[in-house]
Amino acid sequence: MESIKLQRIRKHHRNLGKILASFAFLLANGLSGCLGDEWRSWRGPNGDNHASQRTDAPLRWDLKTGHNIAWRTAIPGRGHSTPIFVGEWIFLTTADADKQTQSVLKIEKESGKLLDQWVIHRGTLPARIHPNNSHASPTPVSDGTNLYVCFHTGDAIWASAITFDGQILWKKKVSTYKPTAFQFGYGASPLIEDDLLIIAAEYDGSESGLYALALHNGERAWKLPRPANLNFATPIVASIAGQRQLLLAGADQLVSYDPIKGTIRWTADVGTEAICGTVVWDDRRILFSGGNPIAGTWCVTGDGKASKLWENNVMCYEQSLLTIKNHAFAISDNGIAHCWRTLDGVSKWKERLFGGGISASPLLVDDRIYVATQSGTIFVIAASPDRFDLLAGNSSGESIFASPVALEDRLYFRTGIGFGDERKEFLVATGRLAAKNGIR
C-alpha cells in the first residue's frame, strides 16, 4: 500500500498537471475560454441553470422564417442531451438506432460547423426504452481538459473519458443497469467534483447506487448503495449552509451526501418514488418536484435539520424547477407557470402558458426565463415574483426535449423538425450571425 504522504504527492502532481493543461487550453483558445463563458455540464457552471450575468439572448426569433437565426446544423441520429460548451467548441451526444451507434459530436461554436463524430459504442443499444426517451439522454461534462460521457448500453452504464480530439483515454463499466419493472432507459447526467466523476445508476436491481470514478483513470473511488428503485434524477453539488452537498431526490427521500468522501450527511423522508428533475436550492432551502406515483413539489431545509417546510400537488415530472433569491419558478406538466415564495410556499402567481407537454428545464438569462416545450415553442417570461409577464413565444421546431443553453449573446437549442421516420434533429443558435470575412 502507498503511504499517505506518497498518495498526497501523487494527487498534488495530478492537480498541478490539470491546472497547467487548463492554462494552456485557455491560452490556445483566447480569453473567451474562461469559465464564465463556458457551459461545461448539465445546468451550467453553478448547477442552477442560470446563465452568466454577462450573457444576453434574443427575445424573439423564428426558425421557419430564419429571423434572428445565426445558424442551424443538422444532427445525425437522435438524442436528448443538452450541449456543453468548452472554449470554441460544442459537444453533445447522439444515437442512431438503425446503425446501433452511440456517439459524441464536436461542433464549432461560432459557425455551427459539424467538425467530427466519434462512435463510442456500437451494437449494444438496449432493446427497449420509453418512446419519449433516447439512447443519448445524459449530458456530457468537461473539466476543461477532457470530456466525459455516460451511456446506457449493453445492459449497463458505461463512462468514457475522451480528449477534445476524440481519443478515448479510458472506458469503464460503472454498473449493471437492467430494470425489470419498466424498461424506460436512462437519463441521469454525470457531474464532476474535485477530481471525481459522479454518476447515478438507480434501478430495481442489486447494483443500484451512486458511483464516483477517478477522472484520471476511471477507477472506482467510492460507491453508495441506493434503494432498488427505478429513478432518473441527476444528482447535483451545491454549497448550502456552508457545506458542499451532493443532493439527490427519489425513492421517497431527499439525501445529502459528502461528495468527496461518499458518505451520507442527512436524509429527509419526503418526495415520491421516481424523480426525473434535479433538485434546486435557494439560500438554506432545497426544492424538487416529481410525479410517480405521487405528484407534488417539496421544500426542505438545507442546513442538516432535514425538516420539510412545505409541499403542494404541482407536478413537474421530467423538468427541473428554477430558483432565484427567495422565490421558485415551475412549469408544470399541464403547461401552467407557477411562482412560489420559498420560505413558506405561498403562491405569488400562476398562469397557463401552453397546452402541456414539457421535458426541458427552464433557463434563467438576466431577468428572463426561457421555457422550451415538447411541441417546439420556446416561451420567454419575466423572472418576476410580482406578476406573470409573457414576453415572447418563438416557433423553434416541432419537438424539443433537451434544455436550451445561453452563452454570450446567443441562445442555443436542440430541436426536431418533422415527425416519425421524417423527423430530423438540429442544433440551432439564435442571435448574432456567425463571423464571415471578419465581419460579424
Show the helix and strand layout:
Blueprint: H1 4-29, E1 69-75, E2 84-86, E3 89-96, E4 101-108, E5 114-122, E6 141-142, E7 147-153, E8 156-162, E9 168-176, E10 191-193, E11 196-201, E12 209-214, E13 220-225, E14 236-240, E15 243-250, E16 253-258, E17 263-268, E18 280-282, E19 285-290, E20 296-301, E21 308-312, E22 322-324, E23 327-331, E24 336-341, E25 347-352, E26 363-365, E27 368-372, E28 377-382, E29 390-395, E30 405-407, E31 410-417, E32 424-431
Please sum up the structure shown.
By secondary structure, the protein is mainly beta. Helices cover 6% and strands 42% of the residues.
CATH topology grouping of the largest domain:
Methylamine Dehydrogenase, Chain H
Q: State the share of residues found in helices, binned by percent.
A: under 10%
Number of helices: 1
Q: Please give the oligomerization state of what you see.
A: single chain
Broad structural category:
mainly beta
Count of distinct structural domains: 2
Strand order of the largest sheet: 1-32-31-30
**Residue runs with pLDDT of under 50 for 5 or more positions:** 1-14, 16-35
Going by CATH, the homologous superfamily of the largest domain would be YVTN repeat-like/Quinoprotein amine dehydrogenase
How many E strands?
32
Alpha-carbon distance between the two ends: 58 Å
Provide the residue-averaged pLDDT.
91
Which shape, going by the Cα principal axes?
A: globular
**Gyration radius, to the nearest Å?**
21 Å
Please summarize the sheet with the most strands: 4 strands, antiparallel
Given this structure, which CATH class of the largest domain is correct?
Mainly Beta
Determine the strand fraction and express it as a percent band: 35-45%
The CATH architecture designation of the largest domain is: 7 Propeller
